[in-house]
Every structure is written in structure tokens, then in C-alpha cells.
């Protein structure tokens, strides 16, 4: 059975997804309307710092990508994303709307800036998909890097 997964954090980085979910297939970019990227809580796996989350936010759009996953890939992703809970969302691809799985952080803490290593992984994924890095820098609460597109 195929599953569809919307990534908006470090799993945007194609090579990371290939390691975590070997049979994952990238379908393309997608948008989650009425949400924005933010960082909450902590994750020691990337160094101390907040982890990415898609927070409801009227008028904003969260950019990401959709991967097609096998059942073993989804189980592996669940194991890896243990700081999150998996939820269903509808995202918009260029070909139309699709129901997908995504992961949300249970927020019991406020904004926490991400670790530099984690932010670098996400920015690499942003670059691979042509997303505007200014959105990432703003969400992370850091000054934009030069040539942030």
C-alpha cells in the first residue's frame, strides 16, 4: 500500500530521505495553506535547538514536498519522527489537492531557535526545491544570509 507524506523540515533534503526511507519517491513540491513554518521544543539528535513544525496561521502558506512511501518506509519514518505525531492534511500540488500524512509537534513550549546543524539541513533541502530561504530565516529568527534564494 502506498502512503503520501508532506515534508517541510529536514526531510526536504532528498539524500536524507533516501537514507531514512530507501524506496521513497519524490512526487514534487506542495503547499499547505493557512500554515507557517516555526520551531518549537527541542531535539538532541541535531544539537540542542527547536524542531520544525507547521503552525496554523491565516493567510500564510507552508511550502514542502510530497513523497510516495511504502509501508516499511512509513514505519521507519514513524520511528524516526518520535518527537512528533502523524496527522492527515490536504496539500496542494501543481496537479491538484492530495490527502497526505505529515508530522506535527506536540507543543508544550514556546518558540525555540533551531540548532545550526538542523537549520543547515533544512536550508539544503530548501535549495534543492527552489524555496525562498528568506522564509526559513524568518521562521528560525535569524538574519538572512546573502543571496537567500
Tell me the fraction of residues in β-strands, as a range. Answer: 35-45%
Q: How many helices in DSSP terms?
A: 4
Please provide the count of β strands: 5
Rounded average pLDDT: 91
Q: CA-to-CA gap between the ends?
A: 37 Å
Going across the biggest sheet, name each strand in turn: 1-3-2-4-5
Class inferred from helices and paired strands: alpha+beta
Explain what you see:
- This protein has 149 residues and is of the alpha+beta class.
- It is 26% helix and 40% strand.
- The chain has four helices and five strands, in the order E-H-E-E-H-E-E-H-H.
- The protein has a five-stranded antiparallel β-sheet with strand order 1-3-2-4-5.
- The longest helix has 14 residues, at 116-129.
- It is globular and about 40 Å long.
Topology record:
Layout: E1 3-7, H1 14-20, E2 25-40, E3 51-69, H2 71-80, E4 84-93, E5 96-105, H3 116-129, H4 133-140
Antiparallel strand pairs: 1-3, 2-3, 2-4, 4-5
Defining traits:
149 residues; alpha+beta; 26% helix
Give a short synopsis of this structure.
This protein has 149 residues and is of the alpha+beta class.
